[in-house]
Design a protein that fits this description.
mainly alpha
Length: about 230
């Protein structure tokens, strides 16, 4: 029996996927020990990421001739605007992160590379492959939310607990299941082995970048300064 697209990519991404559940950023966030500086940096980088993530949903919807995929991408964009983006705005307000601070914070290498990876799929003009690159974000965050809530340990830091409670709910479960089933069907219906391989590659790279995103925030990653030649 042939494995589904989601079974294939989850097997290939285990060190990054399950590894995210055990990353110090996530563990310390639940324990309430994560430095606010690191959470603040994560939020600023994530704001840049989500801005482009939302735009790519829209562009995939415009690119595809598959009505079901178009409907899914439009629904994802709407849910993002009405859910996660609004919650992020409240975090910014509570931490007093100003627009000036956001503009003066350079985009970290990992953030830049992750967004560029998704735009590359879009530039190559394949809506299905681009959709595959978008899936890890929502799916992984959902599973992180579920995992942290199953541990039945409330973060002593209310802000961090609110972040945890943002993910892993029933509505998200239904949306993720629907999107996974769609990508599985599109993968099976593809007449091109090359396209199938591109779908897998796009997903796997995004999953690796998700893991790298925690590391980026935890290490307050910046671009290297280079060497000044005198």
């Amino acid at each position: 029996m042939n494995r589904t697209f989601t079974e294939i990519v989850r097997k290939q991404t285990r060190p990054y996927w399950e590894g995210s559940f055990l990353h110090p950023f996530i563990l310390e966030l639940q324990q309430g020990q994560l430095a606010k500086e690191k959470f603040r940096y994560y939020l600023i980088q994530d704001a840049y990421y989500l801005h482009h993530f939302s735009k790519i949903y829209q562009k995939v919807a415009e690119l595809t001739d598959n009505s079901i995929l178009r409907e899914q991408m439009n629904a994802n964009g709407k849910a993002l605007a009405q859910g996660e983006l609004l919650i992020r705005a409240s975090f910014f307000e509570e931490l007093r992160i100003t627009e000036e601070e956001v503009q003066n914070t350079p985009i970290a290498p990992t953030t830049y590379h992750y967004v560029s990876h998704m735009y590359r799929q879009l530039a190559e003009g394949n809506a299905i492959v681009t959709a595959a690159s978008l899936l890890p974000c929502a799916w992984l965050y959902f599973e992180i939310g579920q995992t942290l809530q199953k541990r039945k340990v409330r973060s002593p830091e209310p802000l961090y607990q609110r972040w945890i409670e943002t993910y892993g709910n029933i509505e998200a479960s239904e949306a993720i299941e629907k999107e996974c089933l769609l990508l599985n069907r599109l993968y099976d219906e593809s007449q091109s082995k090359v396209e199938q391989a591109q779908m897998i590659s796009a997903f796997v790279i995004s999953a690796k970048m998700e893991f790298s995103f925690w590391e980026m925030a935890y290490q307050l990653e910046t671009w290297p300064e280079g060497i000044l030649v005198k």
